[in-house]
Amino acid sequence: MIAGSAVIAITLSHAAALEAAIAEVRNLAQPGAFAIESSSPSGASFERQGRIEQQTSGGWETVFDEFYLVKNCGAVATLPACVTLAPGAVLRPVPWTGYTCYGQCPRPCKGNVYRPPGTFRLVLTACGEGVRVVGAPFFMGSRAKQ
Amino acid sequence: MAATLRPGSSHIAFGAFPNVFRPTVIGGQALFQCSKIEATGSVTLIGSQPAAGWALGFIQVEWVDTNWLFYRGRHNDHGSIFFQRSRPPTRPIKACRDVKAATHIYYEFGGSPPTVAAGDTFPKKLTVHHFDKPGDSAKAVIRNSLTGQDNFIREAQLEFLFCAVLSARDPAGNFHHLKSFYWNVRWQARFLPHDFAAPLGGWFVTPIAAGEGSARSHVIEGEPTDKRFKDILTDTSVSGCNAIIPLYSPPPDGVLPVGNPGRRESNVWKDFDVRV
């Protein structure tokens, strides 16, 4: 049991170190807007879509899983499987709107729920080793919405 | 004495009414959007513990879906394309339940449905909110494979007809449908780019009045009897509505590929039968 915990601890520690090494996710002033900055001298490569998680009583729950790493929605159709950031490059993707379906770029939706208020975070997955890069939690409140 | 539903205690209060917006073309995408619909449902339980596990939620079904798009080239010999997005195989079922996964029953809004906990006292009122804001999108310009020319969205009709059912689930997992209401959103419009050479610019959009609008019924008492969807309210073998969207709007660009039965092409301007 102790040995198992140690292995987990080492794994987590290794993952955390990798995470810190490849990129930083910064929350911008507008809730749901992010800046993703490569902090690795060799750049960073992420799976084309990340996800938004909400903090619930049962832990972090995925509420939106089509968060594309694009500056404009017109680029989604041609987005490669891995999006690479050059060293020091900063990507500001189209922000998350708070919706569970039409949450970023136009798409068909039947059920489409506005999930806030609540605490959320952006989670990205690095290509290759599959390391997760987890953004800091941010609060998105209720707001006037049509 | 176990807990039971207090007779006559269920209520649905309406909030925002869904208004459809005039379709737009932005950034190469035709958008069909509406404002939100909101409602609040409640019911009171009486009796005593043990009653943990009672829950309240809305079950929403989309029981009719109309969804077709017509494109044509700038000139007759540039051809035309018709997309049928609401018949098999692009929509293999008539009615679907609006859930994240087919194994779910309740529509999901803000997490788990309100439930009775082991320490709760009675009478106990459960309240649940309902919210939706459906919409659709389609590429404004698509290459006709027969002519090699760009075809431009010319007309589209989309109709989403829903029923939302307030339903209590007892600790044994049985659902008690209490009240319901129908609602729908509908768009139909014709499109024309200001400049065929610049389709990312402005577009003329002319709504067709008879095909555009929205509606919401009054609250209907008791268990739904509408045979068009009553059997799928708790049938977990039926696909979720959002889950079948990729069948008519596949990634990455939402365009049915050449050869899909939902995509019909002509090398000239053609009137397609929108009914099939």
Walk me through what this model shows.
The complex is a heterodimer of chains A (146) and B (276). Chain A has 146 residues and is of the alpha+beta class. In chain A, strands 4, 5, 8, 9 and 10 form a five-stranded antiparallel beta sheet that branches. Mean pLDDT of chain A is 85; it is low at 1-13. The radius of gyration of chain A is 16 Å and the shape is globular. In chain A, a hairpin with a 2-residue loop joins strand 4 and strand 5 (59-68). Chain A contains one helix and ten strands. The longest helix of chain A has 21 residues, at 2-22. Chain B has 276 residues and is mainly beta. In chain B, 0% of the residues lie in helices and 43% in strands. Chain B is built from no helices and 17 strands. In chain B, strands 6, 7, 8, 11, 12, 13, 14, 15, 16 and 17 form a ten-stranded antiparallel beta sheet that branches. Classes of the chains: A alpha+beta (146), B mainly beta (276). Chain A binds chain B through residues 54, 56, 61, 72-74, 76-79, 99-102, 106-115, 145-146, and chain B through 27-29, 31, 35-36, 60, 62, 96, 98-100, 107-111, 131-137, 160, 240-242, 245, 248-249, 252-254.
Q: Determine the number of helices of chain B (DSSP H or I, runs of at least 4 residues).
A: 0
Overall geometric form of chain A: globular
Low-confidence stretches of chain A: 1-13
Radius of gyration of chain B, Cα only, in angstroms?
A: 22 Å
Biggest sheet layout of chain A? 5 strands, antiparallel
Distance between the termini of chain B: 56 Å
Largest sheet of chain B: 10 strands, antiparallel
User: What does the radius of gyration of chain A come to?
Assistant: 16 Å
SSE class of chain A:
alpha+beta
The proportion of strand residues of chain B reads 35-45%
Distance between the termini of chain A: 53 Å
Low-confidence stretches of chain B: none
Task: Give the overall form of chain B.
Answer: elongated
Number of strands of chain B: 17
Strand segment count of chain A: 10
